[in-house]
Specification:
With 568 residues, the protein is of the alpha+beta class. The chain has 20 helices and 27 strands. The strands form seven sheets. Strands 23-22-21-24-20-25-26-27 form an eight-stranded mixed beta sheet, sandwiched between helices. β22 and β23 form a beta hairpin. α2 packs antiparallel against α3 and α4 packs across α13. The longest helix has 20 residues.
Amino acid sequence: ALSLQAQAGCPVTFSRTHATLEAGTFQVVVEYTEEAVGKQAIEQAEALIQAALNDTPFDSDKVIAALRELDEDERIGPSTGAIVDAAVARGIPFRRMTSGSMVQLGWGSKARRFQAAEVDQTSAVAESIAQDKDLTKRLLHAAGVPVPLGRPATSVEDAWAIAEEVGLPVVVKPQDGNQGKGVTVNITTRAQLEAAYATSQQYGDDVMVERFLPGHDFRLLVVGGQLVAAARREPPQVLGDGEHTIRELVDIVNQDPRRGSGHGTALTKIRLDDIAIARIAGEGLTPDSVPTQGQRVVLRNNANLSTGGSATDVTDDVHPEVAARAIEAAQTIGLHICGVDVICESVLHPLEEQNGGIVEVNAAPGLRMHLAPSYGKPRNVGAPMVDLLFSGNDDGRIPLVAVTGTNGKTTTARLIGQLFTSQGLRVGMTSTDGVYVNGRQIDSGDCSGPKSARNVLSHPEVDAAVMECARGGILREGLGFDRCQVAVVTNVGEGDHLGLNFITTVDELMVLKRVIVQNVAPNGYGVLNAIDPHVSAMAPFCTGKVIFFGADRHHPVMATHRAQGSRV
C-alpha cells in the first residue's frame, strides 16, 4: 500500500505491521496524504497480494494511474496549499472543511475561513463587482485608474459599432467570465468579431467589447493594500525545430512534469483545440504543419496559465506608480486579496506614460504563477495572506485542555470547564454525556471522540475548550486536534477498559493514554497522577513541563523524575 501510493506520486514514507494475539490477524498502519487515496491503496494492495498468491493477472500500471488521478482530485490545490503551508509555519491549526478549497484556520472564536485565495472578510458585494467587468471598469475609471475604452454589446451589430467607436483592434470577452474563457484579443475584422462574439456567448449571455491594448500581459497580486508579487504571462506557444509538426511539438511540451490537466500542478497542459486551431489558421498553419527552426507558434491570444500559458516573475521590476494603480484598483472594488491584470509594454514605467491599462480584477486569483513561475524567483505569497487573517504573533489557538484516564474524566473535565467559566470565558466541552458550549448542551450521548472535538473547535462562541479523550475515539481517529496546552491523566488502573482493538494489557493501555501527553505544546503542561505508576511513567514523554498531583514533593516518584531530568 505504501509503495503503490509512492509510485502514484504521493509523498509517503511510513508503514508498519504488528502481529496480534489472534493467529492470522495483523494490525497494519500506512501513511497517506489523502484518506481516500490511502483507503484505495490498501484495497488494491490486498488485491495485488491475492493475485500473487493465486498466480492471476494484476494491472499495476492501471491501478497506479487510478491512484494518481484520485490523488489529483482529492488533494488540496496549490493556491490553497500555499496558504495552509504558511499557516502551519506559524503554528496555526487548519481544518479542511470540504473536499474543495474551503479551509478553516484557527479554533473557536479565533477561527478564520478562506476559500482558494478569497478570505472571509471580503464581502459578497465586492466579489460581485469584480465579476462584472463593465461595472469594474466604470468604477476604476471614476477613481482615475487607467482602463481601456469599451462597453457591453447587445448584439453582433452593436459589438461592431462599439469596435468602430473605440477603434480597432478590439477585445471581445464575457462580461462575467474567468480564467480567460471565451476571450478573443487583437480583433481587426468584422468576420473575426462575429466569431469571437459567438465564442464569448458560450460562456455568458453578456459580451464586452473594448479597445485592445498592445503590450505584455502582467498579473499583479495585491494583498491587504500591498503589492506582494507580479508576473509577466506568456500565451501557450511552441518553438519550431524544422522536424516536428505543431501537434507533435505540443505533445513534447506537455511531457513537462510540471504540466497537468487541472489546477493541481504548476503549469497546465496546452490544448490543441478549436481555439488553438483557429489561432494558427490565421498564420496559414494547421496542426500538421512543420514550423521552421526557431519559428514561434502562438496557440492562443490570452496568456492565462489555465489554458497552458507560462509566467515569469517580475516582482522586483514593478514601478511604484504601477503598484499604486493596482492597489487603488483593489481598494476601489473592495477586495482584500486581488489579482490585477495589466496590459502594458513594461512594468518599469507608469501606465499613463505608455498607454497601458488595467483590463480586469480577480476576486480569487490563482497563485500558481507566483508560487512556481516558469522563470524567475518563486514568491511565498501565502505568508502575507495569513498575516492578513492573523496579525502579530496570533496563532489562532484558544486554550485547550485534554483529559483522559480510566475513571473520573468527565468530573475532571467539568471542574476545569467551571474554572474557565469563572474567568469569563465561553467554554466548549466534550464528555461522555454530551457536548456543551457556553453552558448549553448542543449534543448528547458519548461525545468523547475526535468528531465532537472538531465540532467544538469550529464553534464561533468557544473561547476555551476542555476535551475528554476516551480510548475508543483515540483508537478510531486520533485526537481531533494537533496539540493541547494542558493534558490531564487521572489514572490507568489495573485492568479496566481492556480488550478494545487488541489493547489487552495495562502497559498497552498506558501507551494509548499517553498520546495526549505526547501532544502537549512546548510551553504547556502535562498534569499526571503521581500515585499511579503507569501515569507517572508518562512524564518523560511530555513535550512540555510536568505537574504531579496526589503526592508531596518528597514522594519517591518526584525524586525519581528530578533525577531523570524531567521538567517537573
